[in-house]
């Protein structure tokens, strides 16, 4: 079988070493003679896994002690609703920064729960190049209970690399597609959430990092599975958690530590993205439509500006083992998602293919 590199935006590729370990332990986990998915989440072994995974995640991401970490269900979309249910308080209003599809979706969902103001913070210039135009909101932010934004717009490949300035207001971030990709100052955030299926593990589990002083303010009608206080008090086990997904995340965290931690991961991600963007910069055949400062390190979008050629590209790439390069239908073209688990060799193989395809079809 040809070597396959999976450029899917999510559910995305997992580290091979993690899948191999899971395979090895599948029938006999912790010498229990059963798999991890068949044991009680309240039993000794799973509780140990839960505690250890939280510790590892805290260590890898350098999360301060005054933040709680929750392992929930419902994906990022669940959090689109949970955030306003839990964080709307005395000010009665939230600010949503719109940088594209996902931040727009978050704002739309929030409107079901509270009053919001929504600001467009990106622009498309006359050449079609998308840029984020504003990151300082310190003049208006403090009239809101929180300010929400998306650090990485997965569909367009627009990343906001500078943490928005919101003064003393509470900053909430959807980090679904770039969590654990780079070192960040967690203390700048009130709350961070991410569905696991891009950069942390498989689909079915969602991580929330929430500052302690924001817990315990949920509106009365908040379902207990969405109530941060309830979930904190029950170690994210108010109901049966997605134990197998949690287990796989725990292996991913251990794997990251073994690989040298986030510093090493960040360097590797920067190398991968630079290879691809440098190639695009020097190409007259492909174009990327994102301003230099906002080019995502995780999702690299490009196009030949010809729908037929794009389709041919995707089909031929797939035949060569370079999978899931079709862009999201909202944008068209191609998208290479190069999350933590994508090895440099995958990016090199993609560039080699792009070059060959360009020469054959120019
Ligand atoms: C994938 C994605 C979502 C949606 O995640 P679900 O877990 O499917 O709800 C939301 N935000 C961003 C930035 C994403 O990449």
From TrEMBL:
Cofactor(s), by name: pyridoxal 5'-phosphate
N6-(pyridoxal phosphate)lysine carried by residues: 198
General function of this protein: Catalyzes the reversible conversion of 3-phosphohydroxypyruvate to phosphoserine and of 3-hydroxy-2-oxo-4-phosphonooxybutanoate to phosphohydroxythreonine.
Single Gene Ontology BP annotation: pyridoxine biosynthetic process
Family per similarity comment: Belongs to the class-V pyridoxal-phosphate-dependent aminotransferase family. SerC subfamily.
Binding site for L-glutamate: 42
Main location: cytoplasm
Record field: transmembrane: none
Note on how the cofactor is bound: Binds 1 pyridoxal phosphate per subunit.
UniProt keyword annotation of Cell cycle present: no
Reaction(s) this enzyme catalyzes, per UniProt: 4-(phosphooxy)-L-threonine + 2-oxoglutarate = (R)-3-hydroxy-2-oxo-4-phosphooxybutanoate + L-glutamate; O-phospho-L-serine + 2-oxoglutarate = 3-phosphooxypyruvate + L-glutamate
Listed EC numbers: 2.6.1.52
Biological or metabolic pathway of the protein: Amino-acid biosynthesis; L-serine biosynthesis; L-serine from 3-phospho-D-glycerate: step 2/3; Cofactor biosynthesis; pyridoxine 5'-phosphate biosynthesis; pyridoxine 5'-phosphate from D-erythrose 4-phosphate: step 3/5
Gene Ontology CC: cytoplasm
Domain Aminotransferase class V: 4-350
UniProt binding sites for pyridoxal 5'-phosphate: 76-77, 102, 154, 174, 197, 239-240
Subcellular location field: Cytoplasm
This protein's UniProt keywords: Amino-acid biosynthesis, Aminotransferase, Cytoplasm, Pyridoxal phosphate, Pyridoxine biosynthesis, Serine biosynthesis, Transferase
GO terms assigned for molecular function: O-phospho-L-serine:2-oxoglutarate aminotransferase activity; pyridoxal phosphate binding
Pfam families: Aminotran_5
Origin superkingdom: Bacteria
Protein's UniProt name: Phosphoserine aminotransferase
Keyword Nucleotide-binding among record annotations: no
InterPro entries membership: Aminotrans_V_dom, Aminotrans_V_PyrdxlP_BS, Pser_aminoTfrase, PyrdxlP-dep_Trfase, PyrdxlP-dep_Trfase_major, PyrdxlP-dep_Trfase_small
Originating species: Actinobacillus ureae ATCC 25976
Lineage: Bacteria, Pseudomonadati, Pseudomonadota, Gammaproteobacteria, Pasteurellales
């Amino acid at each position: 079988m040809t070597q396959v590199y999976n450029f899917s935006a999510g559910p995305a590729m997992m580290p091979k070493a993690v899948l191999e370990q899971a395979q090895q332990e599948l029938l006999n986990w912790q010498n229990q003679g059963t798999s991890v998915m068949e044991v009680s989440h309240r039993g000794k072994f799973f509780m140990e896994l839960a505690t250890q995974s939280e510790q590892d995640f805290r260590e890898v991401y350098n999360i301060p002690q005054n933040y709680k970490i929750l392992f929930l269900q419902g994906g990022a979309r669940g959090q689109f609703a949970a955030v306003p249910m839990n964080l709307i308080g005395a000010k009665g209003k939230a600010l949503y920064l719109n940088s594209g599809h996902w931040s727009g979706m978050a704002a739309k969902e929030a409107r079901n729960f509270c009053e919001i103001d929504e600001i467009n913070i990106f622009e498309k210039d006359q050449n079609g190049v998308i840029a984020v135009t504003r990151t300082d909101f310190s003049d208006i932010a403090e009239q809101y209970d929180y300010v929400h934004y998306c650090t990485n717009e997965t569909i367009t490949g627009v990343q906001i690399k500078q943490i928005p300035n919101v003064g003393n207001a509470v900053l909430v971030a959807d980090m679904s597609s770039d969590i654990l990709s780079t070192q960040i100052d967690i203390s700048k955030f009130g709350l961070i959430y991410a569905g696991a299926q891009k950069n942390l593990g498989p689909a079915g589990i969602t991580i929330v990092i929430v500052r302690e002083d924001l817990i315990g303010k949920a509106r009365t009608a908040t379902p207990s599975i969405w109530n941060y206080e309830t979930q904190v008090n029950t170690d994210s086990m108010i109901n049966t958690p997605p134990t197998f997904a949690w287990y796989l995340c725990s292996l991913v965290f251990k794997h990251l530590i073994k690989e040298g931690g986030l510093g090493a991961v960040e360097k590797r991600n920067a190398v991968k993205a630079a290879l691809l963007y440098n190639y695009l910069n020097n190409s007259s055949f492909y174009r990327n439509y994102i301003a230099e400062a906002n080019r995502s390190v995780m999702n690299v979008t490009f196009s030949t500006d010809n729908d037929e050629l794009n389709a041919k590209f995707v089909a031929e790439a797939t035949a060569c083992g370079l999978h899931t390069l079709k862009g999201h239908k909202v944008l068209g073209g191609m998208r290479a998602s190069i999350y933590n688990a994508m090895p440099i060799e995958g990016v090199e193989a993609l560039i080699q293919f792009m070059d060959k395809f360009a020469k054959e079809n120019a």
